[in-house]
Amino acid sequence: MSENVLEVRQLKKYFSLPRSSGGSVRAVDGVDLTIGQGEVVGLVGESGSGKSTVGKCIVRLLEPTEGTIRLHGRDITTASRRQLRGVRTEMQMVFQDPYSTLNPRMTIGDIVAEPMQLHRLARGRELDTKVAGLLDKVGLASHLRHRYPHELSGGQRQRAGLARSLSVEPSLLVADEPVSALDVSVQAAVLNLLMDLQRDMGFSCLFIGHDLATVEFLCDRVAVMYLGRIVEEVNTTDLFRAPKHPYTQSLLSAAVVPDPKLQRTRQRIVLQGDIPSPINPPTGCTFHTRCPVAQLPLCSDTSPTLTDVTGRSHLASCHLITADGTAPDVTLSQTTENAWSKT
Ligand code: SF4
Questions:
Q1: Where in the sequence is the domain holding 137, given as residue range(s)?
Q2: Does the beta carbon of 304 lie inside 6 Å of ligand 1?
Q3: Which long-range contacts does 272-278 make (Cβ < 8 Å, 24+ apart)?
Q4: Do 245 and 333 share a domain, yes or no?
Q5: Which atom of ligand 1 is nearest to the CA of 298?
Q6: Of 166, 185, 209, which residue constitutes the final position of a domain?
Q7: Residue 335: is its pLDDT beyond 50?
Q8: Which of ligand 1's atoms lies nearest the C-alpha of 246?
C-alpha cells in the first residue's frame, strides 16, 4: 500500500462551452499533487486559478477530464457511484459556505448523525453518544443538537459542518476556503479548531485558500496555482522565506506581516490586470502577460517545466531560475508594458 494518502497525477478538468463557441474552459490543466499521512498541504492562488476545481475533482464532486487520483494507492478516478460510497468514509470535504451544505430541515444532531447512519458506522445509543462527543469536540454546546442550521451563527454552522465531515473519521479532509465566509472575529477560532482536530485525529488535509497568513499558520507544504497549473510547491518555511516563482513573490508581497516596522519597509508588488481567461490561456508560460521579468520571446513561446530547482524538493516553473536555484528578483524589475506597479 502507498505511504501517501493522496496522489494526483496530471489532473485535468475542462468544461465544454456551448457548441457554437466550440471551445472549453481549462479550469485545471495538468496538476500533480501528493499528500502524505497526517500532512496538511495548502493550495493557494487567485480566484479563477482552479484550486477549488482541483478539490472538487479529488472528492469526485466533479468528473476529471484526464489524469488519475489515487487514495491510499487505490485508483478512484473512475470509481462508480456505488464504489464512491465506500470512499466517502475515507475522504470528506468542508465547504466555504456551511449554510448551503447543511440541510435546513434537519436538526444539527441529525445532520451530524446522518453520515454515520448512511455508512452503518453506529446506531441507537452508540450513535447518540458519538454525536454528543463530536459536538463537544468542535465546541458546540449539547443543547444545540436540537437546533436547526438557521438558528446557529456562521461560526457555529461551520463547526457543525466540521463535526459532520469528521463523523466518519476520514483519513483525508479537503477544506475549501472554510473560513472565508465567516466574520473575521470567528475565523481564528475556527482555524484553531481545525488545527487542533487535525493534530488530535491525525487526518491529512488539503487546505484550499487565498489568505497566505492562514496557509502559513496551518500548512506543512504549499502549492501555488496559476491558471490551472501548479507553478511552485515546497515546504511552508521555504516558500515564505525564499519564494522562487515571480507569481509567488507577488502574492507574498501583498501579504500583511504582523511587525508594523517590517511592514512599512516592504515593497508591495501589484499585478497588473486580471488573471487571463482559461478559455484561451496565453502561450508559453501562462504568466508571461503579467510577469514583470518576462523575457520575450522565450517566455511567450516555451512553457517552463515544474522542476526541483534547489535539489531539496522545491518545485518551480520559471525559465529564469538559475541552475543554483537563484530566483529572478521581481522587485528590481523596471516598468515595462507588461510590468507591475509598485505601491
Ligand atoms: Fe516570468 Fe518567464 Fe518565469 Fe514565466 S517563465 S514566470 S514569464 S520569467
A1: 105-166
A2: yes
A3: 272/338, 272/339, 272/340, 272/341, 274/48, 275/46, 275/47, 275/48, 275/49, 275/226, 275/227, 276/227, 278/25, 278/26, 278/27, 278/29, 278/48, 278/50, 278/227, 278/228
A4: yes
A5: 2
A6: 166
A7: no
A8: 6
* Ligand 1 atom nearest residue 304's Cα: 5
Asked which of 166, 184, 208 is the last residue of a domain, the reply is: 166
Q: Is the pLDDT of residue 323 over 90?
A: yes
What is residue 199's predicted lDDT score, i.e. its pLDDT?
95
Cell of 209: 485558500
Q: Does 134 fall in a domain?
A: yes
Give the model's pLDDT for residue 21. Answer: 72
**pTM for this prediction:** 0.92
Task: Give the chain's domain count.
Answer: 2
The pLDDT, as a whole number, for residue 85 is 87
Ligand 1 touching residue 246 (CB < 6 A): yes
291, part of any domain? yes
- The answer, yes or no, to whether any atom of ligand 1 lies below 6 A from the CB of 287, is yes
Q: Is there a domain that residue 250 lies in? A: yes
231 inside domain: no
> What are the tens digits of pLDDT across the range 116-151?
999 999 999 999 999 999 999 999 999 999 999 999
162: pLDDT strictly greater than 70: yes
Edge-to-edge strand list for the sheet holding 307-308:
91-94, 172-176, 204-209, 40-44, 221-226, 229-235, 315-316, 307-308
Ligand 1 pocket test: which of 226, 275, 295 has the largest number of ligand atoms within 8 Å of its C-beta?
Answer: 295
For ligand 1, atom 7: residue with the closest CA: 288
- Band (pLDDT 50/70/90 cuts) for residue 334 is very low
Tell me, in angstroms, the distance from the centre of ligand 1 to residue 14's CA: 24
CA-closest residue to ligand 1 atom 6: 318
- Atom 8 (ligand 1) nearest CA: 294
For 210-240, the pLDDT digits (tens) are 888 899 999 999 999 999 999 999 999 999 9
Q: Strand locations in 101-171, DSSP E?
A: none
Ligand 1 within 6 A of 293 CB? yes
Nearest-angstrom CA–CA distance, 196 and 151: 26
- Taking residues 203-215, report their average pLDDT: 93
